[in-house]
Amino acid sequence: MGARSNNINNTLKIIKMKNSEKPVTNKAQAQDKAPQLIVSPAADAATELRDFFIDSLKDIYWAENALVTALPKMVANATSPHLASTIKEHLAVTRNQVTRLETIFDLLGEKAEGKKCEAMGGLLKEGDSILEETAPGPVRDAGIIAASQKIEHYEIATYGTLVAFAKTLGENDAVKLLTQTLAEEKEADMLLSDAAYSAVNFDAAENTLQPDIAE
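Above: the chain's sequence. Below: its structure in token form.
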């Protein structure tokens, strides 16, 4: 009798175990056990970086268009033929850079539109002040070179960052185009340095630092 009772108890235990393994039929329980969508922090970061990348492109797009408007004024106010020629050549390069940025927007499936660049706006305003405060001649030319190089240094920093962003996002076509522009900005800076070390700065120094000769 004892053995039979033990067999019955064992059978009941097995049934309970099998019942506990049955699939969930309750709707609420099923929802609790449903797999949850996990958003990868890396995916969030990539989306955020892409948004920032596009925002930065809009910023420099505005800046380059503003330069296209401002550079002819610098050319007209430069006394040195060498300086005027250097800026005029960079104006043509800048127009091509605007077109290149429009190509990048198209590659990204975005509308080419500018967002006011406060940094460039400030640099251009400083350039205007130099023209207002100096007379035509070597001193003004030296000021134009100084203002232009500040602009180039800003652009070099900006395009260097944009290249890094594009590489991180895997936008290889954009990397190539931005790298080309970065190289152009570095070359423009070198050309302005050449102008600065030419007679322009020496003439400016002689024009302003000539000692008075006592009679």
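The helical segments are 2-20, 27-33, 41-77, 81-107, 118-133, 138-169, 172-208.
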